[in-house]
Amino acid sequence: VLGQSPEALVGVNMESVSCSAAAVRTGDMESQRDLSLVPERLQRREQERQLEVERRKQKRQNQEAEKENSHFFAATFARERAAVEELLERAESVEGLEEAASRLQGLQKLLNDSVFFLAAYDLRQGQQALARLQAALDERRRELQPKKRFAFKTRRKDAASSTKVDAAPGIPPAVESLWDSPLPKKAEGDLGSSWVCGFSNLESQVLEKRASELHQRDVLLTELSNCTVKLYGNPNTLRLTRTHNCKLLCGPVSTSVFLEDCSDCVLAVACQQLRIHSTKDTRIFLQVTSRAIVEDCSGIQFAPYTWSYPEIDKDFESSGLDRSKNNWNDVDDFNWLARDMASPNWSILPEEERNIQWD
C-alpha cells in the first residue's frame, strides 16, 4: 500500500489474519453444531421407526388373536349347537331336556363373552341360532309333557274374555288349537300342564294369575294398555308384546322372558334369560342368571328385582333359578358394540328412583 509505513502494513496484515482466524473458528463451531444435530435427528428418526414397527407388530398380533378367537368361537359354537340339537332330538322326557337346556345356556354365555371380537354379522347369526334353539327347546318341552285325557269337543261359550289370548305368529300348530279354547277344569288344576295362558286386548284393568293357573306354563301378554298385571307363581316362559303404560309383576320364570314393542312400562321379573326388542322408556327390576340382551331399544333402565309375595321362596325353588346369582346390570346391546363407551340405549336406574309401590 503506497504511502503507508511498514509498521502500518504489518498492523493491517495482522488484523486480516485475526479476522480470518475468527471466521475459521466461527465456521468450525457451526460445523460442529451441525454435526452434533445429525446424531440427534438420526436417533429421533430411529425411535420413530421403531415405534412404527412396534405398532404394526401389535396390530398384526391383535388381528391374529382376533382371528384365532373367531375361529375358536365358530368351532366351539358349531360343536355345541350340534350337541344341543342332538339332545333335543333324542330326549324322551322333560327331564331328559335338562342337559340340552344347560348346554344352551352355555352357548349363550359363549356368545356373550365373544361379543368384543366378533363381527356384527357373526354376532347376529349367533343370536338367531340361539333363538331357534330356544324355540326348539320350548317346543320339545310341550311335546314331551304327559298327555291329558280330555278332548276339545266342548267349549264354554261364556269364557271370560280376559283369559283369552289370540294366536300369535310363530306359535307351533300343536299349540294354536289351545288359544281359543278354555282349558277343562281338570287340566287347569293339574300343575304338570304347560298350556299357554295370559291376557290380551285389555285396558285399564288389574289382572292376576295365581300359582295354580300358571305353574310351568307359557304366559303371553299382548295388546295391554294402562293395566297392572300380577303373576304369582312359576311360569315356564313369559312374552310381553305391544303393551303400553303397564305395570307387570311376575314370579320367577324358569327359562326366558321376551319383550317386544313395549313402551312406558314398569316390570319386575326374575328369569334365566331376558331379551328386549323394539322397546322404549321402560324400567325393569330384574333378577337374571345370564345376561340381558337389548336390541333396537331406547330409554331402558335396570334395577335389582325387589318384588315379593308370601310363596316366592317356594316358587324360586321350583323354577331352578339361582337366587344368589343376579346379573341385572350386565347387559348386552346388539346395536352398540363399542368397547370404550357405554350404550346410550340403557342405563342403571338411580337408587332414589327405585322406591316403587308394587301394591
TrEMBL record:
Keyword Zinc in record: no
Region entry Disordered, spans: 48-70
Domain C-CAP/cofactor C-like, residue spans: 184-336
Location relative to the cell: Cytoplasm
InterPro entries: C-CAP_CF_C-like (IPR017901), CAP/MinC_C (IPR016098), CARP_motif (IPR006599), TBCC (IPR027684), TBCC_N (IPR031925), TBCC_N_sf (IPR038397), Tubulin-bd_cofactor_C_dom (IPR012945)
One Pfam family here: TBCC_N
GO biological process, one term: post-chaperonin tubulin folding pathway
Keywords recorded for this protein, A-Z: Acetylation, Chaperone, Cytoplasm, Phosphoprotein
Cellular compartments per GO CC: cytosol; endoplasmic reticulum; photoreceptor connecting cilium
PROSITE patterns linked: C_CAP_COFACTOR_C (PS51329)
GO MF annotation list: GTPase activity; tubulin binding
Role played: Tubulin-folding protein; involved in the final step of the tubulin folding pathway.
Binding partners and assembly: Supercomplex made of cofactors A to E. Cofactors A and D function by capturing and stabilizing tubulin in a quasi-native conformation. Cofactor E binds to the cofactor D-tubulin complex; interaction with cofactor C then causes the release of tubulin polypeptides that are committed to the native state.
Entry similarity comment: Belongs to the TBCC family.
Official protein name in the record: Tubulin-specific chaperone C
Record gene name: TBCC
